[in-house]
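Our collaborator T.R. sent over the components below with a one-line note: 'Predict the complex.' Nothing else. No constraints on interfaces, no templates requested, no preferences about which chain binds where. So this is a plain run: every listed entity goes in together, and whatever single assembly comes back becomes the starting point for the next discussion.
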Amino acid sequence: MNCIEAQALVSAAHDGELIGEAELAAAQKHCAECEDCTAFVAGMRYLDVLPAPSAPTGMAERVMDAVAPLAAERTEERLIQAERAEAESVGTEAPQPESAAEVAGDAAPTAMPFEYSAVSMPAPSGPGAGGFSWFVGPIRWATLGAATALAATALVAFVVIGLNGNTPASRRSTATSGVESTVSPDFTYSGGAAQDGQIAGAAPNKAPAQAPDYVMYKDFVYAPGALIADASSATPTIGTLSTAFASGGAPQQVTVYRSPLSDGSIVVQGPDGLRLYAPVIRMLTSVRYQLTSGKAVDHFGVWPVLPDRFPAPTNSAGTPSFVTAGTDALSVPIYSATGRPVTEGFAVAPVTATTDPAGGNPNWTWWAPAPANP
Amino acid sequence: MKLTQLDDPELIRAANEGDIGAFEKFVRAHTDAVYAHAYRFFGDVQAAQDATQEVWVNVYRALPDFEGRSAVSTWLFRITRNVCLDMLRAGRRVAAPLDPVDLRGIAADDTAGDAASHVDLETAMRALSPEDRDAFNAVALFGLPYAEAASAIGVPAGTVKSRVFRARRALIALLSLDGQGGGAR
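Returned assembly:
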């Protein structure tokens, strides 16, 4: 056993991993006799007692101040639900708000209730899921009177503008579910609903006329994220890709850098500087699958297509290339290649919702296991 | 510093049922871990505070979704990590620069006290790759087992093991705790 092996075993055991008794004993014996490894063990223990950065004084109070409006909203929601249940149990009309101000909810952040209805995530489940039906209630109440309708319309307009503006859908989805971000950047989640029942519970929708600003690197598709303000956060060059970006000119080879993030993204030198490009991802059994394309996506607006090895299906069942293979984490139906396991990749039928990672692509798409390091 | 999981599911259940005091207790128990991760991610106090606030707002909103299928610490780490990534993707903040130049002189410094070591630890953290730092934080700050960290980060458990080990070796070397610079005590 050499030093690296011994240190790795001791490190893993230190973190609570199960190590074979004999193997661990050998590692410990090595570390006791080797000066370098003895120092490593001492250093490892010393790291444990070094303090990590502590939140500044008042941080918890600041958090609770930020949460207070949400808590008030939740309390109000429970009261109304209780009143409604009581009214229904005695056969009377459910309680209704009386004013536009009440519809808008003075004490509550207005955008939050509509976040659920704007993204194509599964409806919240669990003990508090009942709140969702109340959240969409204001739209229905808006029919009660002109003033109420006006207020609700203004509210909806505000929220729609907000959703298409500064609030990334990826953030909304993670905010509500707490699961790893499964979506591509903002514009692919520009709102709207599903078509052909591709997204459970969504209404029909047209495919957008043009694809998002995709780039393609090693057959995988990426969508633009933030500009990297600090060039030093981009690490070494990992290759090049071909794109004309938004211009109508001929595609050029542009440099691709390793991303400072560990999410499979890349950094591309574009006309406006270094920009992060996030992998277009969908999740299946906690595994990340990334959108691929069988033809070059060498300028913005090009829709990815199936790899050449798959003849385009002739029907909604996916035959002859594919067979149904269940649904992904967003309840979108997926199709495995005929005779092949879904773990090798899967297809998604055309025209998913514009809020789907496929972004309403009018073509069948193929999703392959995402590379951890592009 | 690691998360204590004692009573956390109970606190979450109570908070979800409207007990704001339970939620505050949960916040106070774990805000340091959330803040530390955000600080190491952004390398900036203000960004770390903003991220910490956003994490807890998101946690509150997600309370009804917590079904206990994963440990509380895993759930919290996942939300914390996603908030930081989302803030970065949205262009609201930039990540801590990977700047090995900042490390010059650390090994030669007299780390005569925990305060000095603390500063050095955070400076040394910036020399780690984001991937290694991510894995190290998951294990060292949130106390996640490798398998849980792997699930949250989206890589195999063996990769987490390698990253944590690599981070540990790098930190020990950078802080001269390996007997080469006399920093270990």
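Summary for T.R.: Chain A touches chain B through 78 residues (CB under 8 Å).
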